[in-house]
């Protein structure tokens, strides 16, 4: 196996975009052999949102929202209106009779919310002078409403009219929102998850009531995601992964990742410092396909089965720095080190000493509640555990990659602190499309 290194760190300064450096002997399963640098932002790009099969929107610290074509890399719209950085962005789809239209809702540090039409680039609605900045947005399609979270939780109808509001008593405010069954939502605030219920009255107005507070995390919650219809998951700053029942909100599993060597037969090692750094065990990002969860823990990756409540694959050091975003369906991750890496699960070589707790931290399997005292250091038996092996790198950014967005065979787009985006393409597919376009052009002009 070998790496493809595309463009290099200086790609944004005019290096040939389809230049490829080959290291090794065998071709990896990395089809992204062409790249295109997209320029338009002049500050950190933090958010990428898919609009439809061909378009996506980008936003970041410059307050701009840009709409792009994934096939050509063309900038279609430039939407200005926010005076400070964008803090959240979501698509809002409205269905009326035979038409379906997708809008964009954005929140900014300027304490405003805006509704944009990506077709025209116009700002259709705006709400200003909010009490605080909105940190997260959630669309509830079943109720035709959307919710904003920050120092307060607000419910809005499709016409941008405030329907309900609750003040929160938290230092950081609401940082993540998840939709639950029976018109409920889960809101992450500091170490707690608060369950709210939305109730629609006969006059179409909404009320918002707090029904439960889940306080089982020991540190601040960093990520909150829905897993399937009956389960959602949360990850904390100290490596806690908790699976929750979406209906009765009870704990289904509690796992704690610790970066401590615990093999009795491992050679002694002199280490500076009393323990792991907080960033090394913080769960930065979670993604799922409904049966597996991919957890980014510091610079490591763990694949966790929600069926068996066990780790089924891992890579303790997957990147040189903290991982910021992951994708499970195609097993990809991006990091502060400026790289995107692709992975596949492989069986561990025998003997399988690497399956011990010393290589993937210490997991307290199958706990129904938070442990009252530090867990024991017994090595769990995990005969079927696998290792994550890299199949390719995408190197082109000069700063931390904030996230990526996949359009399947059409390509992959990444955004970074270097103020740029890169569109990664399947080289073989692009070559075929160019040949086909040339053939059609020659045929139309009777050149054959």
From TrEMBL:
GO terms for biological process: regulation of autophagy. It comes from the Eukaryota. PANTHER family: WD REPEAT-CONTAINING PROTEIN 41 (PTHR22805:SF2), WDR41-RELATED (PTHR22805). One of its GO terms (cellular component) is lysosomal membrane. Signal peptide: none annotated. Keywords: Repeat, WD repeat. WD repeats lie at residues 38-78, 104-126. This is WD repeat-containing protein 41. Coiled coil: none annotated. PROSITE patterns: WD_REPEATS_2.
